Amino acid sequence: MNQSRSQALFERAQKTIPGGVNSPVRAFRSVGGAPPFIVRGEGCRIWDADGNEYIDYVGSWGPLLLGHRRPEVIEALREVLDIGTSFGAPTEAEVELAELIRESMPSMEMTRLVSSGTEATMSALRVARGFTGRDLAVKFEGCYHGHVDSLLVKAGSGVATLGIPDTAGVPAAFADTTIALPYNSIDAVEQTFRARGDRIAAVIVEPVAGNMGCVPPRPGFLECLRHETEKRGALLIFDEVMTGFRLALGGAQQLYGIRPDLTTIGKVIGGGLPIAAYGGRRDIMSQVAPSGPIYQAGTLSGNPLAVRAGIAVLRRLRSHPEIYDQLERRTAQLTAAPPAETTVNRVGSMFTFFFTKTAVTDYASAKTSDTKAFAQFHRAMLEQGIYLAPSQFEAGFVSTAHTEQDIARTVEAAHRAFAAR
Ligand SMILES: *Cc1c(COP(=O)(O)O)cnc(C)c1O
Description:
Blueprint: H1 4-16, E1 38-42, E2 45-48, E3 53-56, H2 71-81, H3 92-104, E4 110-114, H4 117-132, E5 136-140, H5 158-162, H6 172-175, E6 178-181, H7 186-196, E7 200-205, H8 221-232, E8 235-240, H9 251-256, E9 262-265, E10 276-280, H10 282-285, H11 304-319, H12 323-335, E11 343-347, E12 350-354, H13 363-366, H14 371-383, E13 386-387, E14 396-397, H15 404-420
Parallel strand pairs: 3-13, 5-6, 5-7, 7-8, 8-9
Antiparallel strand pairs: 1-2, 2-3, 4-10, 9-10, 11-12, 12-14
Bound molecules: pyridoxal-5'-phosphate.
Residues 116-118, 121, 144-146, 206, 210-211, 239, 241-242, 266, 276 line the site of pyridoxal-5'-phosphate.
């Protein structure tokens, strides 16, 4: 595979951008080689600077549920170009998007739009602390909630991939406000609430974890979180930045039938534009400024381009509920016959092949994966035109643009990649 232009661009990038990338996992550190520099995307395909074509299972790390350049999204963006790209003033479209979010995800009675998932989780946590008057937050090892200071403790995604220590640049006093527990451990949650329940502001969780690879909640786990928080006056925050609108129109909370107090969404809601949101119970969200004392603001929050893209995505999902059955079928096809030396986890259109025979139910079991074998597999797939996340500790994503043929081609490539090892 010719990668000479990507290689040259990567060398040039490293002179002015840390590690040559604007988000760490993009650097392909754990699989080696230069990352392909991407020049174009269409449907489920992307092309790099050397003209290589790939079937894309990264989908911009989750946002592209409808694939690249979905016509409704492109059309919505064109319309915005005729009226102006930012006003810093209220617009009708923001109201429409908040209403669409509430209709899709009823627990989000009120919503505040922000520009990234990190901003959404940071703000939701502040609101939880302001509302409860408590400081402590419970999170789970291997879950990633953006690069919020106090949530970088035992974090997943790039932090896991690069094996970065928890606290570089994070004051100990911030990290000390976070209690990190093993994912899926009902015992640990009950014990923690028995010991410190009256000081806990919130439990924040990926209801289906995606940032240590895909790890579903075990039966009773989310129910336990709902029960313990309610009993002790803490808030339950579902971080659905990855799962919102991906696993179902109403996200993981619809799939598992749990109503959190606050929810964060992002990724899919922007269709590839920078937007995210946090929201939830009216009595809690009413405490946000200017209606309450908890401050949060954003110059580009509710940006017209991102909002219009979001409306286009939500309208499409709402008018085509069969999309979710199609995603389920396609992803099941992709994960139907995992090689003997792997464990496959899947929920809807999120999946991960772990290079371990151990069942992966938390961060400790995810880490039993043979990351060298993963790196070889990743390279062999790339060379066959299959673009997977360059880390064992990430979820793969199927979009509505992937056809049965695309999936069949990917399965064949995977068999060859395994056979070659
Ligand atoms: C991606 C992600 C975030 C962070 O969102 P950014 O837009 O990258 O800041 C937060 N939580 C979860 C669950 C995510 O997957």
